[in-house]
Structure formats: structure tokens, C-alpha cells
Amino acid sequence: MAHEFGHVAVLRRNKIPVFAIRLYGIHGEIEHGYASKAQSIRVAWAGVGAQFIALLLALALMYFTAGVSNRVLSVILGPVLFVFTRVNVFLMIIALLPIGPFDGHDAWAAIPYLRGRVRKRRMARLEHEKKMRERAVLPEEDLSPERLRELEESSARAAAEVIGRIAKKAEKREDKH
């Protein structure tokens, strides 16, 4: 039940409608609305994640009750802890098998999905870097030394003209005062 409710928690968090929950002994099934590939992966892992939380709680209970020598408590807790530890781990392994109706079919789809996302990011970054290189104007790479000297001389003349205009405006202001 914890496994199936782990699925339901993620489905509801993603606002995906849950139509039915069916439990068949140690196997369950959830009927839900459309989920994207990423959402399906999260839903699949949520079931095993809920089982893992149950396992951690059972291990904590086992740790804290290890020193208790109460016969009645050990008769009750023994089978409960067996189910929530050993049987739970076995069911987690079965659920993650990448075959048939098990969650492993969707859960292990995370590997190619993440690989594809990394590849898309890398391609986008390379494309961005390529565009930035194309936009960059680096005269040292494309111009001959003669053309580079001509550009430097023309920019020096343009700068001298601008400085001359600024100096004339400053002189006119001083004359008015």
C-alpha cells in the first residue's frame, strides 16, 4: 500500500487525476490521467521511494527495540519487522525489474531521458558559443597588418576630431562666462 500511495502522492502533486487504485495481494495498479515522460519516471520512482521510507522507519524501530526483552513485544514485532524489512526489500527489487507491468520499465527510462537532456543542454551551449564567436569582431584574426594599420589611423583621426569639437565647445562656454 505504501508503494501505491507513493505513486498517488506524486500524481496529485503534479495535478494528474487518479482514476483507480487496485491492490492484488502484493501487487498494485494505478489508473491515472496523462503523464509526460518525466512525470512517469517520477511516479515510478515514488512507489519505491515510499517503500524505502517504510524500510527506514522499520529499521529505526528495530534499532530502538533491540534491547527490549519483552516476549509479547518480540512476538508481535518480529513478523512486522520481517515484512517491513526483508519482504519490503524483495518487493522493491521486483518492482524495479525493467519488464512487463513493473515500475522498472518507467523508472529506468530515467537514464536515457537524463542522457538526452544533458545532450540537449550541451548542444545548446555549443550553439550559443558558436553564435558568440560569429558575433565577435576580432580584427587580429581576419585583417592583414596593412588594413589593421589603416583602421588604427582612421580611428585616431576620428578621435582627434571628436576631441577637437569638445575642446571648441568648452572654449565657447568659457568665453560666455
**Low-pLDDT ranges:** none
Gross geometry: elongated
- The chain-level structural class is mainly alpha
CA radius of gyration: 35 Å
Task: Count the DSSP helices.
Answer: 7
**Share in β-strands:** 5-15%
Number of distinct beta strands: 2
Total number of distinct structural domains: 2
* Helix share, percent: over 70%
Major β-sheet strand ordering:
1-2
Arithmetic mean of pLDDT: 86
| H/E element order | HEEHHHHHH
Largest sheet: 2 strands, antiparallel
Give the termini distance in whole angstroms: 91 Å
Task: Explain how this protein is built.
The chain has a two-stranded antiparallel ribbon. The mean pLDDT is 86. It has two domains: 2-118, no CATH class; 145-177. It has helices at residues 2-13, 37-64, 71-95, 104-107, 110-135, 139-142, 145-176; strands spanning 18-24, 27-32. The chain has 177 residues and is mostly helical. The chain contains seven helices and two strands. Helix 1 (2-13) crosses helix 2 and helix 2 packs antiparallel against helix 3 (71-95).
Question: Which key features would you list for this structure?
Answer:
177 residues; mainly alpha; 2 strands; 2 domains; single chain
Topology:
Layout: H1 2-13, E1 18-24, E2 27-32, H2 37-64, H3 71-95, H4 104-107, H5 110-135, H6 139-142, H7 145-176
Antiparallel strand pairs: 1-2
Helix pairs in contact: 1-2, 2-3
Q: What does this entry show, briefly?
A:
The protein has helices spanning 2-13, 37-64, 71-95, 104-107, 110-135, 139-142, 145-176, and strands at 18-24, 27-32. It has 177 residues and is mainly alpha-helical. The mean pLDDT is 86.
